[in-house]
Amino acid sequence: MAQTIAEKILETHLVDDKQKVVPGNVVRARADLVLLNDINGPVTFRHFANMGVGEVVCPDKLALVVDHFAPAPNALGAQLSVEMRRFAREKGIKHFFDLGKGGIEHTLIPEQGLIGPGDIVIGGDSHSTTFGAFNTFGTPMSWAGAAAIMALDETWFRVPESIRYNMHGHKSRFVTGKDVILKILQDGGVAGALYKSMEFGGPGLAEVNMDERMAICNMAVEAGAKTGIFEADEIVRAWADEHCKRPYTLVSADTDAQYVSRVDLDLSAIRPMIAKPYSPDNVVAVDEVRNVHVDQVYMGNCANGTITDLRQIAAIFKGRKVADGTRAIIVPATQKIYRQAIAEGLVDIFVEAGAVVSTPTCGACFGGHNGSLSDGEVAISTVNRNFRGRAGHPGAQVYLSNSYVAAAAAIAGEIIDPAHI
Amino acid sequence: MKVEGFVHLLGNNVDTDVMIAGRFLSLSDPAEMAKHMFEESDPGFRARAKPGDIIVAGTNFGSGSGREHAPLGLKALGIGCIVAASFARTFYRMSIDLGLPILTSPEAHAIAKSGQPMRVDIATAVIEIAGQKIQAEPLPEFLLSVLRQDGMVNWVKQEVRRRKAAAG
Q1: Is there a single domain that holds both residue A79 and residue A196?
Q2: A358 and A221 in one domain?
Q3: Is pLDDT at B23 greater than 90 in this prediction?
Q4: Does A164 lie in the same domain as A304?
Q5: Which of A3, A284, B63, B140 is most enclosed, with most CB atoms within 10 A?
Q6: Is there a domain that residue A136 lies in?
Q7: What is the CATH number of the domain that holds A91?
Q8: Is residue A139, in this structure, part of any structural domain at all?
Q9: How far is B12 from chain A (nearest CA, A)?
Q10: CB within 8 A of A159, min separation 6: which ones?
């Protein structure tokens, strides 16, 4: 039977190959990697301890990253890192990335070559859909479910229905992958792909590089999707040949696969987009937002902390200053990206412009630390969520955008089309 | 698996940041999480919620950040079941794996009013409210088996015992 990308990947990971990979069925399957951070890790460890199994049956399939309460903002946060270190040591987890050794998990894990095309990757964190950029079935899971994999090397999956997005056309200047997913959210809403696999294909794939693909798949979860996957193409193959530490399998959908809908995405029709408070689907084109002063501009996180993003920010910042009354925070996603930015002279441009450059951390994105907002403050941010209260005080407002638009707002002190800088 | 309690009616797209804010994610004790549920959007919720009570919500319940603190906190408050028109999938999965019964029924959300008594049979997915019987989407048998074990931790314990016995 003709299959979608999600169905093909699930089928190759079945525990019992007599089970049918049909949308709606619950099947048992093995994952290739389980990714936990300092929020979901310690809870998962407790679930695992309560299962009474003792040792992790698949220690090399586990990756632990300290990135949320890192550097620890307080004693409670520090305790979480301690639990991560202890578990890694006691259970012999070799893929352990402490502060200074890694960065933000969803950018770090592909950078390290720990995932590949055709893999199933489970994350305790909701943005584990990011891995779809690499033709990987990446999906967030319950932490108890992650613990079950550590105990049994398998878990249950409900086979998702799939939506096909056919990308074509050339994108305009200042339009990025972020705008593609914001456009999808504008059209389909935060439940537009509920429980589904969003699958991206078509001649327009070549318009978005790996970093921009990550931004698209990252926010697939904002449309309610179980996963968002790019079809295998030459860009995926080239990436995999350079990075993957294990053999990989490029996966494409069958031409007659069953999709619940097929969506046409004309990239040439997409403008730089903004999601207004308080939902990622409250989306308009940037030139529809007028007279919005921004107190803070936050550029980074697992959607947009890549070297591509930092170059985009630098293109806007070079020779300019962050506006008085506005503060800018830039967070490279990983240590490697940070060093690359230094080598390319980008960090110098940022600091010269009057921005703060932070160590890699999820900090302010989830309102944990490192740039939280006060009552009444307005921010533009390249992160993925702007729910009420997420970035600090419930009275704060967050607009979401790509890196060009955020950087332009930092210079202008208000939301502005980067073409008008 | 039968639940009987009073309805707390909520709307569409209730996200997990609203249920419990990010700054409480360093908490590990469910009883502590329970103290912060809906703290900013509905501070009276915690006092109104009684053991066995049922949340009835609209579409995409539990959207946004995947955090077990949300279903764990609701379970610790005594919420016996959640019935929604649809669920965000990570929240759905977390609830099942933590032994918090949830059922999908758009009809229930159209009928239910806050404070009404409601009965839910999880195994058959039959809901009784305001003198009516509603058939919600039945849960797949595997998910019911996880709920019967009060979640994935006990399910794994049982599965490990079963495998050991089978191996002789």
Answers
A1: yes
A2: no
A3: no
A4: no
A5: B63
A6: yes
A7: 3.30.499.10
A8: yes
A9: 10
A10: A6, A7, A10, A21, A22, A23, A24, A25, A26, A27
Q: What phi, psi does A291 have (nearest 5°)?
A: 55, 40
Q: Which of B88, B93, B151 sits opposite A141 (nearest CB)?
A: B93
Judged by DSSP in three states, A381 sits in strand
State the complex-level ipTM: 0.91
| Last residue within a domain, chosen from A222, A242, A267 | A267
The count of CB pairs under 8 A between chains A and B is: 138
Q: Chain A, 40-79: which have a CB under 8 Å from a chain B CB?
A: 40, 42-43, 46-47, 50-53, 68-69, 74, 76-77, 79
Classify strands B2-9 and B117-121 as parallel, antiparallel or unpaired. antiparallel
Do A63 and A200 fall within a single domain? Answer: yes
- Among A79, A129, A142, the strongest candidate for a mutation testing the B interface, having the largest count of B CBs within 10 A, is A142
Rounded to a whole number, what is the distance in Å from the CA of A319 to chain B's nearest CA? 37
Per-residue CA distances from B22 to A90, A148, A400, B16, B47 (Å): 29, 25, 18, 9, 22
Judging contacts by C-beta atoms under 8 Å, the chain A residues touching residue B97 are: 142-145, 148
CA atoms within 13 A on the CB side of A390: 25
Number of domains in chain A: 2
Q: Which residues of A touch B17 (CB under 8 A)?
A: 367, 385, 387-390
Does A390 contact chain B (CB < 8 Å)?
A: yes
CATH number of the CATH domain containing B16:
3.20.19.10
Q: Averaged over B142-168, what is the pLDDT? A: 95
Q: Each residue of A95-130: pLDDT tens digit?
A: 999 999 999 999 999 999 999 999 999 999 999 999
pLDDT under 50 in chain A at which residues? none
Residue ranges making up the domain that contains A167:
8-16+25-267
Residue in chain A lying closest to B154 (CA) = A51
Where a domain ends, among A238, A267, A296? A267
Give the pLDDT confidence score for residue B64 in this predicted structure. 86
Same domain, A257 and A366: no
User: Using CA atoms, how far apart are residues B34 and B40, in angstroms rounded to an integer?
Assistant: 13
Give contacts of B86 with chain A, Cβ < 8 Å. 191, 194
Query: What residues make up the domain containing B130?
Result: 2-166
Beta-strand runs (E) in A209-306 = 227-230, 261-266, 273-275, 283-285, 296-300
- Type of residue found at A210: M
pTM for this one? 0.95
